[in-house]
Structure formats: C-alpha cells, structure tokens
Amino acid sequence: MKVTTGAVGLPGTSRQNKTGSWRINQRPHFLHIRCTACDLCALCCPEGCIYGNGRNTYYSDYEYCKGCGNCAAVCPVDDIEMEPEKGGLPEGVFVFYDEEEFRHMSTA
Amino acid sequence: MVRKMLEGSQAVAQAVALCRPAVICAYPITPQTHIVAELADMVASGELKSVYVNADSEHSAASVCLGASATGVRTFTSTSSQGLLLMGEVLFNIAGMRLPVVLSCVNRAVSAPLNIWNDQQDSLSLRDSGTIQLYAENNQEAADLIYLAYRVAEDHRVLLPAMVCLDGYILSHAWEAVEIPTPKEVDAFLPPYSPLYKLDPEEPRTFGMYANPEVYTEARYMLQRAMEEAVTAIQEASHNFELIFSRPMPGILEEYRTEDATTVILGMGSLVSVAKDVADELRGQGEKVGVVKLVSYRPFPKEMVYEALKGASDVLVLEKGISLGSAGPLLLDVRSVLHGPHQPRVRGFVCGLGGRDVTRQTIKAALAEKELVDARFLDLKADLELEGMGQANRDRQPALARGARRKRAPRKEGINSA
Amino acid sequence: MLLASAAFEEGKEALAFPTFGAERMGAPMNAFVRLAREPIRDRSQVKEPDYVLVLDPTLLRGFDVFAGLKEGGVGVINSPVSLEELGVKTKARVITVPAGKIAEEVLGRADRANTALLGAFAAATGEVSLQALIRVVEAHWPGAVGQKNARAMGMAYNFAKGTGK
C-alpha cells in the first residue's frame, strides 16, 4: 500500500466505507402502513442512506445504516420500528490511497 | 532591472505581482495591510490578473488559499501577529496536504498585551507547522525571498508552504532603494507551477483525508524528509538566483566576518544589520567578532549552522521572541547542533520585543554578559516596577550553572528509602 | 519618504521609516531619515540627529524635540511666530518657517505643511536641492496637486533663504 504525497486519495471513499458494519443490535424496519412521505426520516438520517419517493416506499440501505434509530424517533406516524439486528452485516472496509487497491475494491 | 525608492510593503507586493499568483486572499491587519492593499489596487486596475478574494478572517484567508492551491494554482496571502496565529491550524493543514502556498508575515508582537510593533514571536510560534520560514534583513531581501519562496515551495521534492518574514515597520514601512527585476528575469528563475495532485472534476481526488494510526506516522515522516530536501532546494535555487539576477541571495545563511572570529553573533531579520555594525566597530578595535545571519529558520539547516559556528568559542544568539517556559526558539535550535564537548559556548538573548529598538548598545550589553544564559532579556527597564516582584527578584534572571549539582532533598520515610 | 526619494534622485543612499503611537491621524509620531553615500544598514531610531524638523509646533509643549541634536545641527520648526515668541531656548541653529500658513494659502489646508517644510529644509541645510524635491513631489502627485505642492515648497524655500539665519 502506498502513502501518497500529502496523503491525497481518490474520491468515493465514503461509498467504499460500509458503515453498515458498525451496527450492533438493532436496525430500522419500515412498516409501509401509515407512511405520509413527509421525508423526515430521509432528512434526519445522519448517513443519508434512507431513500423513498411517495407513500410507503421508504427504505434504509443496510450497507450503510448504522442503526442509530433517528428515523424511528422522528417519524410522525410511527411507521418505523427498530427491530433486533438480523445479521448479515457488510464487511467493514477502511479507505485506501492506492489507486490499484481502490479500483480492485470498488464495486460501483 | 530597475532600482527604485519603495516602501517595504510595495517591494513585497511588486515581487508577488511578478510571480502572478492566480488567487490572492487576505484579511487586513497592522502592519501588513499595505501589502495586500497594493496588490488589490493592482488587480482592480487590471495591472495584475489575479482573483482577489476578501476574506472574513485570516483563518478564512488561509483556507481559501488552501482550496485554491489544491486546484493546482499559485496563491498568496499575507498577515501578522494574531492573524498568523489564527491561520495556525490551516497552515498545518496546508503543509500536511503538501500545498505550496506562499505568504508574507510582517513580523509583529503577539497579544497579550496588545502591541502593533515588531518582534518575531508570531512566526517563531508556528515553527512546528511544516511551513518554510525565510527571514529578510532588508527590503531587497524581502522582495527577493518571494521569488525564492515560490520556487522552493513548488519544487516537487518539497511541496510545502513558504513564509517570507519581514520585520514590521522596520522593514515593511521603511522607504529604501530596491531593485525590481523585469517579468522576463523572474520567469527565467521561476517556472510555472506544475502541481503533483490537484482537484479536478475530470480526474477527481480527495485532499485532507483521514489517516488512521497505520499510516499517519508515515505521512508526517514524509513531511520531515521534505523539509530536509528543502535545504538542498533552497541552496540550488539561491545559486540560480545569483546567476540570473546578478545579486547575492543567501537563501540559507550569510556569514559576515566569521573567518577567524572567536565570538559570533547569530540572529535573523533586521537586527542583523545592527550586529554587522557592531562587528565592524569591534573589528576596528582588534576584536575577532563575526555575525551569522540565518535566513532559513525552517528548515533549520543543521549542517550549515554547525559549520558556520564550530570555529568560534562564544556564540551569542539574539532573537525577538521566546518559548515561554523554556528559552528562545532560535537558541534551542542552535544549541541542538552544538552539543557535546569541545563546542562553542552558546548563549541566548531576548531583545526587541514589541518594537523595542535594537541598537548597538543592546548588542554590546549581550557581549558584556558573563553568565551562561539562555533567555536573558536585554534592555529591561530598571525604573519600571513589576508587580509581584521585589527589586531583588525582578532582576534575577536565572542562568544555567553548568556542571553544578543540585542539593539533594532530604530522604523521606517510605517506599523509596533504602 | 519625500526627502529620502529626493536624495535618492540626486544619487544618495536613503532610508526613511516612521515610528508612532496610537493608530490614528493626529497622534504624535516620528519619522526618521538617514542619508548617506554608502548603503545604509542602521535601522535603529535616530537618537542623535543632524537635523530636526518639527511639523506641528504644539509638540514643543510636551516634547524636547531637539534632544540629541548634534552640535552644529539645524532645526526647522513650522510656526507662524518667531523662535523667541515660541519660547524655544536652544544652542542649536533653529529657524521657524510659517509652512502651515503657506500651505493654507496655496493648498487650502494648514495641516498639509509637510512639503513646504521640506522646501525650507532644503534652503536651510542644502542637503537636498529644491529641484529634486519638486521632481519627486510632482511625480508623486501628478497634475495640479503636485504643482501646488511644488509652489508651496518654493515659497517656504525662499522664506528660509530670506531669514538668512
């Protein structure tokens, strides 16, 4: 692995860094019953990994979801519940500086 | 080459203009403002085709320069005193990201108490930042060091920010004759900036990344090596400067009458001029006194300083700053290369703080000192009472009693009593 | 600055620098100039001047403006009244010149007396020629402003010559 001058790296390292691997024991479950598409869950997610377009379409990308519970706490119609972690967490990956290593790891 | 009467700030501004930075971003502070005001005038009149950004603080000014430099262009800023300290964390970042931002520091005392006059505490306080520091003795050097700063900073072996330091008021507001080269001459010395990495949407990069314990040490080690390379880069650039401009450029240091000197005074900036006058006077009386002017403070040119001083028996370091709780920063650096037996005695003196005039008398007072001091404040006023200090105490400036053993404290009963 | 530039015009080496107190207009300040044939290294404040110019006569109340003035040195004070009336007692050769009055007449402002005072200095000491001063002033302030300043300098020069002191 190479340390570049100024530790300059490549972009997209956030995508590489699977923060979903940080979850411990809970993750959000989107009920899709009463959702009003207010978008608050998506706005309040610190990772920005909640997506949705219209009622009862919202979901969290578990590759990056850290299980913080903000979305469930903020949903005005209680359509999100925190459920026990079901396993199958992604593998944690640290950012790389080496172009070759990055291209090898990048899946986008 | 034209020689004209200029204010120091104008000489610096004209030198910067000849280097054609793409972005200039600054915040005003006494006594550097004349420099950036002059540059702003040049941009406004169209004489200088740079983007001039008015920042809301020095922290912002340095940050704009960081960002602009990261896009691969030449930048410039200027500041003093508290402004430089406010830029502090950004300068560490600029150095860590290996960006060759050039700035001028018009040396001014730091608060508190508030003082607008000259000393070098501001730049000395950022000696750890990874910024190259070059100190000008006069306005010719203040201008010339700008060309040198860009050339060395942008050298791919170096890629570090570089700061040209000039004494506030003493140099910045002094009118004297300065040679300003032609654009052609400057271009012959300073090639266009060719960045190693840059922010470019076509080929994206990330600057200022997170580095975990596994790689951080190596990144910092690379900085130290770059500083060491800078010594070579400065020497090479200085020789080239002399060839192109037909003018002396002591980029690292200058030795004045040191050949057979037993006593050598070492300093930086305008106080060296006074030291040279004192050396001339004492030489006239048969005393073997010489002066070493240090131009490159960072990188600290260990080998060259050692070579310049090893033949003396007495070295006096005079500086306009102090590392409170220890000694003068310059003294500490000089002593670090002259350790061990058979080395000259090195002593440190603090003078010229907050604009107090450094005169021949100041320097002679240092020469008259007998004790092994490392931070002797010269020119303390006898008629000023200092609260909390009795008369006997206030004048007691501790000196190192080399070789003296401290009295042992009486043994107490307990774990460690044998 | 003007004096240093004029001397430089005439082939001398010159160094000029200020020192002042409060950062505001109207506060007392000192401006130092050194003229020489060789490059000047001494940047310390001038404590033993050959010449002292006093632009604001109110300073005479609080300051010993001629402290350190060398024997044989010359002082020039901007004042509409004579030395005796000012109450200045000094062994040095000191002349007074109504530079403020001249400035008011020519430039419309009594506090723009610096150029006139320099004209008087040139006459009293011969250290720099009036022509060099005029060249510098007109280069610094092109057009009518420069010409008016030049006229004020000339008038003060003649006044100083006329006093014959």
Task: Write a structural description.
Chain A has two domains: 1-17 and 93-108, no CATH class; 25-90, Alpha-Beta Plaits. Helices cover 19% and strands 13% of the residues of chain A. Chain A has helices spanning 13-16, 40-44, 70-74, 99-105; strands spanning 26-30, 50-51, 59-60, 80-84. In chain A, a hairpin with a 7-residue loop joins strand 2 (50-51) and strand 3. The radius of gyration of chain A is 17 Å and the shape is elongated. The model of chain A has no long low-confidence stretch (mean pLDDT 86). Chain B folds into two domains: 2-245, Thiamin diphosphate (ThDP)-binding fold, Pyr/PP domains (Rossmann fold); 253-394, Rossmann fold, CATH 3.40.50.920. In chain B, 37% of the residues lie in helices and 17% in strands. Chain B has helices at residues 8-19, 33-45, 58-70, 81-96, 121-124, 139-154, 183-189, 216-245, 271-284, 302-309, 329-337, 360-368, 391-394; strands at 2-7, 23-26, 51-54, 75-79, 102-107, 132-135, 162-167, 175-180, 253-256, 263-267, 289-294, 296-298, 314-319, 345-350, 376-377. In chain B, the strands form three sheets. Chain B has a seven-stranded mixed sheet with strand order 3-2-4-5-7-6-12, sandwiched between helices. A six-stranded mixed sheet of chain B has the order 9-11-10-13-14-15, with helices on both faces. In chain B, helix 1 (8-19) packs across helix 2. Chain B is globular. Chain C is α/β, with parallel strands linked by helices and 165 residues long. Chain C has a three-stranded parallel sheet with strand order 3-4-5, covered by helices on one side. In chain C, strands 1-2 form a two-stranded antiparallel sheet. Chains in contact: A-B, B-C. Chain B binds chain C through residues 5, 7, 30, 116, 169-171, 173-177, 270, 273-274, 276-277, 355, 357-360, and chain C through 1, 4-5, 8, 13-19, 23, 40-45, 47.
What structural class do helix, strand and pairing data of chain C support?
Answer: alpha/beta
CATH hierarchy class name of chain C: Alpha Beta
Architecture per CATH nomenclature, i.e. the level-2 architecture of chain C: 3-Layer(aba) Sandwich
Overall radius of gyration of chain C: 15 Å
Question: Low-confidence runs of chain B (pLDDT<50, min 5 residues)?
Answer: 403-410
Count of helical stretches of chain C: 7
Tell me the Rg of chain B in angstroms.
23 Å
- Characterize the main sheet of chain B: 7 strands, mixed
Indicate the proportion of strand residues of chain C. 15-25%
- Average pLDDT taken over every residue of chain B: 93
- Class per helix and strand makeup of chain B: alpha/beta
Instruction: Report the order of strands and helices of chain B.
Output: EHEHEHEHEHEHEEHHEEHEEHEHEHEH
Anisotropy-based shape of chain C? globular
Tally of contiguous helical segments of chain B = 13
